[in-house]
Automatic annotation (TrEMBL):
Residues 457-479, 490-506 have a biased composition (Basic residues). This is Sulfatase N-terminal domain-containing protein. PROSITE patterns: SULFATASE_1 (PS00523), SULFATASE_2 (PS00149). SUPFAM superfamilies: Alkaline phosphatase-like. Keywords: Calcium, Glycoprotein, Hydrolase, Metal-binding. It comes from Ilyodon furcidens.
Length: 774
């Protein structure tokens, strides 16, 4: 309003009403009097103009808070978080998706083309709110389900809390999905002044009904800490947008600066767009893709309404608009990450490379595309620093202040990203027992701090799995890559070598025991001698030494390790009977002989358990271990059905459960190969070794995984058919560690009926199509 008054004053001053008087028709006295009057008017206008400019400068640069202290200029921050929008689900990547507003805002701002999020909802949102990796919040395993007594750590500060300390008015509208079992977990207890939205991960767009299993459904729409009844029938994207516009309308320009987190549920399932938005996509044959695209259009309209409100109520010129997705899309439900590899829930680029841009009049370099490496954890220090807050109060942040990178195009301070380490997710392998029946087995792990994983239990029939315990990597100082396997460990109940060899598989060829050693099928891993320093030391048992963060290759005894020597059968038996835990390393390609050799020295502990699901990005390189998820390149949904021939165009023919020698290490140069089509793990073992060392460093800082069991007290039937907090405040930390099912849980499970599941799928599909009239 101040700017409008200033322009009005200038326009009046420009009319110059007194200059049109003819001096010749007036007497000299009148002419002199007129000149004096004009001079006085001009001086008055200059004074008013100067005063107006001063008021404008003071209103934009000086602000009075509740304490009466003046602070420097603080921009309004509008963060728009979208759910499940893929790389190929926005207009400037795919013209078939109609998003004119998003395209215009992105083109006038800075498009972030090297920006990363997490593959699923809760981890991304937790890292945005806390600025910490999920290994530091205990949420590294999965999402928080509605009945789980879990939420953000109570001792950890949040982004809205820091902004509120800096004098901001903080508001959140939309999806929370960060736990609500206690009132202390609610958004209003985590730094937001107001909250309007849903607490669970997915609700019906019209009825706001959320389900966590058969018969476990409840109403989930809340206004602050009360249930917001009477909103059924209103489309959630439009309802959330209306609430956001009301916040902008009621916010006083001369009052506090504004932080608004608009966390839309769209375009997450269920696919429920208004029918009027489907019509522009009527030419799309695929029904799911058609609905998904229509929901993206509703998001585009919502953003248009928000930007219009910013301009209407005078917030725009001093605002920063950030648009970001929370993870990749799910092709099964109409989304698309093409041409990136993978999908939501995976650590391939399609699951973690996010769509994002920044739009603001405050940007110094606009209308450009940024290739700087950024991560969702960077928003915490970036926004707090932009708001003039104190970053030093937040200890243990994993993010960086990247505003100079975004606004001025400077080099990003971020050089690497830890995508995640999930010790509970280990690759399933298939082994064969003595009766030649395939057995699925996964090594048990413990979610304790660091890399102190529990050893798998001893199996009498499965020999290969028992040999994977306490694996060690033997490294030689040679330029040529070597193949290393995982050695066996001492076991009190181990049997003679001849029997072990006979039980390793029916296809193994017998050989004289005096001349050969048993050949076991291991998981080969390629390494060179490491040339970098990691940030943690390893003890003899394979656990990290937290007392020292200074390590080199000598700490691991890698340069001092000697190649395994050949032994006779008698010496092997003696070694198995030793009480001290020693490991030996056997190269499968070396010929065997029965000549006696000196006793082996203890092999170095393993640098990293490659069966653990983990992913890290360092510079141009990206490393994945364990099971990163389905690594498909899913083409566009061009056919009228869901999974069909198009789904298998880029699928691998390899079975889901591979042999015990399955691949569990991938290496890509993302800069030159953004679609992850050329695996370089075998060609660059030196880089693999370096990135494994970085994983080991990060893992020593990890906190225990917190994944408690479902609490029956959360059932909505006990709370008036609504999802609300159910536990007392004193119950914080009641569950320690991770929920593990009983030993008989697997026995009670029935065999899966693939035909039954297929029939059920098509039945639901047909019912949905009939109900929607499509």
């Amino acid at each position: 309003m101040v700017g409008t008054e200033r322009r009005t004053i200038r326009s009046r001053g420009g009319e110059e009403p007194f200059t049109s008087i003819d001096p010749s028709s007036r007497s000299p006295a009148v002419t002199m009097q007129a000149a004096v009057t004009v001079l006085i008017v001009l001086l008055s206008l200059d004074f008013l103009s100067a005063q107006s400019k001063s008021d404008l400068r003071n209103s934009s640069n000086v602000q009075t808070g509740e304490t009466g202290q003046k602070t420097k200029n603080q921009p309004h921050i509008i963060f728009i978080l979208i759910d499940d929008q893929g790389y190929n689900d926005i207009g400037y990547h795919n013209p078939t998706i109609k998003t004119p507003t998003l395209d215009k805002l992105a083109a006038e701002g800075v498009i972030l083309e090297n920006y990363y999020v997490q593959p699923i909802c809760t981890p991304s949102r937790s890292q945005l709110i806390t600025g910490r990796y999920q290994i530091h919040t205990g949420l590294q395993h999965s999402i928080i389900r509605p009945r789980q007594p879990s939420c953000l750590p109570s001792h950890m500060d949040t982004l809205p809390e820091r902004l509120r300390d800096a004098g901001y008015s903080t508001h959140m509208v939309g999806k929370w999905h960060l736990g609500f079992y206690r009132k202390a977990c609610l958004p209003t207890r985590k730094g937001f002044d107001t909250f309007f939205g849903s607490l669970t991960g997915s609700v019906d767009y019209y009825s706001y009904r959320s389900c966590d299993g058969p018969g476990l459904c409840g109403y989930d729409l809340h206004d602050n800490e009360r249930v917001a009844w009477g909103q059924k029938g209103k489309y959630s994207t439009m309802l959330f947008t209306q609430r956001a516009r009301k916040i902008l309308e009621s916010h006083n320009l001369t009052d506090k600066p504004l932080f608004l987190l608009l966390s839309l549920q769209a375009v997450h399932t269920p696919l429920q767009p208004p029918k009027s938005y489907i019509y522009p996509y009527r030419d799309m044959a695929n029904v799911a893709r058609r609905k998904f695209a229509a929901m993206v259009s509703t998001v585009d309209e919502a953003v248009r309404n928000i930007t219009y409100a910013l301009r209407k109520y005078g917030h725009y010129r001093n605002s920063v608009i950030i648009y970001s997705t929370d993870n990749g899309a799910q092709p099964f439900t109409g989304g698309s990450n093409w041409p990136l590899r993978g999908r939501k829930g995976t650590y391939w680029e399609g699951g973690i490379r996010g769509v994002a841009f920044v739009h603001s009049p405050l940007l110094k370099r606009r209308r450009r595309v940024s290739k700087a490496l950024l991560h969702i954890t960077d928003w915490f220090p970036t926004l707090v620093g932009l708001a003039g807050g104190n970053i030093s109060q937040s200890q243990g942040l994993d993010g960086f202040d990247v505003w100079p990178t975004i606004s001025e195009g400077k080099e990003s301070p971020r050089k690497e990203i830890l995508h995640n380490i999930d010790p509970l997710h280990k690759y399933l392998t298939v082994t064969k027992s003595s009766d030649d029946k395939p057995t699925k087995k996964a090594a048990a792990v413990s979610p304790t701090k660091g890399a102190t994983f529990k050893e798998p239990k001893k199996q009498k029939k499965v020999v290969k799995q028992k040999l994977n315990k306490k694996s060690g990597f033997k490294l030689k100082a040679t330029k040529k890559p070597q193949i290393f396997t995982q050695p066996a460990t001492k076991s009190k109940k181990s049997k003679p070598v001849s029997k072990l060899k006979q039980r390793s598989g029916p296809k193994s060829k017998p050989a004289p025991e005096s001349k050969t050693k048993p050949q076991f099928q291991h998981q080969p891993i390629l390494y060179n001698k490491p040339k970098i320093q990691s940030s943690g030391t390893l003890s003899a048992s394979g656990a990290f030494n937290h007392k020292s963060k200074r390590t080199t290759s000598q700490n691991h005894n890698l340069s001092q390790s000697r190649p395994a020597q050949n032994k006779s059968k008698k010496q092997l038996k003696e070694q198995f009977k030793l009480k001290s835990k020693q490991m030996f390393l056997q190269n499968q390609n070396i010929s065997q002989s029965g000549s006696p050799t000196p006793r082996l020295q203890p092999a170095p502990p393993p640098l990293w358990d490659t069966s653990v699901q983990a992913a890290i990005r360092v510079g141009d390189w990206k490393l994945l271990t364990g099971d990163p998820g389905h690594g498909d390149w899913v083409p566009l949904q061009m056919l009228p059905t869901l999974p069909g021939r198009w789904w298998n165009l880029e699928r691998s023919s390899a079975p889901r459960y591979k042999s015990s020698a399955h691949k569990n290490v991938w290496l890509f140069n993302i800069t030159s190969d953004p679609f992850e089509r050329q695996d370089l793990a075998d060609q660059r073992p030196d880089v693999v070794q370096q990135l494994l060392a970085r994983l080991a460093y990060y893992n020593q800082t990890a906190v225990p995984v917190y994944f408690p069991p479902d609490d029956p007290r959360a059932n909505p039937s006990r709370h008036g058919e609504t999802w609300v907090p159910w536990a007392d405040e004193e119950e914080e930390g009641k569950y320690q560690g991770v929920y593990k099912k009983g030993k008989n849980a697997k026995k009670k499970r029935k065999k899966k009926c693939q035909l039954c599941k297929l029939k059920s799928f098509f039945l639901k599909l047909n019912t949905g199509m009939m109900s929607n009239g499509i």
